[in-house]
Amino acid sequence: MEFMVNVPTCVGSSEYSTLAFCEELNWPDQCDFGVAMEGLGFDGLAVPDHIQAGNGPTSECLVTTTALAGVTETMTLYPKTINNHLRHGPLLAKATAMLDVVSDGRLALGMGAGWKEDEARAFGYDWPDAPARLRELEETIEVLKALWTGDDVTFDGEYVQVAGADGRPHPVQDPHPPIMVGGGGEEFTLRITAKHADVWNYWGPVDLMAHKLDVLESHCDTYDRDYDAITKSWFARCLVRETDAEVQELLDAVPRFKPENIDDTEFALVGTPEEIIADVERFQALGIEEVVVEFVDFPETTGAALFAEEVAPAFD
To answer: How far is CA 154 from CA 137, 158, 177, in A?
Structure first.
């Protein structure tokens, strides 16, 4: 199993941020944290894509990811998850191809249809309904692959058009960087995943993930796609400490993650290393091969270090 770590791009009060120990985001903290995660042996850095979230600064995803490429050497670099509607797909193909080149083949690209309407409208974007955004996402993924591998690409879609576009320099990875599709929509998102994705990522408790995986497998059958060829990835926020007393102290500071405050669509990794291992094993039994963790004590590395030292080795 591989473990990726979120490098936050926004903090403060919002429906998105749950980082109680970081009042304002800054690049030195992101940089130091990313370097520390590589030193601890994590497999990759995941960078959320938002342009306005929380009540403080929000750092742009692709620039942040590229900067992290410059201060790390081996970690997967995982924009997760690009809000497709906020990006011109062909230009995204050029930018991410170059990111794969400058990182020497370390890009894994997460793609999604977006969910946060207010940030889009704040920056002057329209906001089509979800089915339209998902159809646009599917066309973008097709164009990404075409431009990542071609030098004279023409594509005439409903949402995306190119005519004689040159995708060079192509990514280092052959045939192209892996594409993750994030989201749990059963009619559109999981169908797009089955047809186009290398990785699928979602969040939630075991029963919910099991159901979504069943739907994904059904879509794979429809497209005659090998279900096992898609890496299954799960996202969770994490509060981990060595003793029950320390966990409770942390929960008192972040009551959002107390059991009574977690609804039945959520799941957080909360507890001692032994308890975290037991929880992760339940998801591993579903076929989860990748876990993306956001440590709630960011920018501290206390939780991440304990996870790296006592949890991750159980899944080597």
So the answer is: 17, 13, 21
Is residue 14's pLDDT more than 60? no
3-state helix, strand, coil in the chain (%, to 5): 45, 20, 40
Paired residues of 199 in beta bridges = 180, 231
Q: Which residue in 173, 174, 138 sits closest to 159, CA to CA? A: 138
Q: What is the pLDDT of residues 86-114, one digit of tens each?
A: 999 999 999 999 999 999 999 999 999 99
Contact 183, 199 (CB under 8 A): no
Contact of 32 with 40, CB cutoff 8 Å: no
Q: Are 267 and 204 contacting, i.e. CB atoms less than 8 angstroms apart?
A: yes
In CATH, 2-315 is 1.20.120.450: no
Q: What would the two tokens of residue 169 be?
A: 């320099």
Are 186 and 217 contacting, i.e. CB atoms less than 8 angstroms apart? no
Rounded distance between C-alpha atoms, residue 173 and residue 34, angstroms:
23
C-alpha torsion 130→134→135→140, nearest 10 = 140
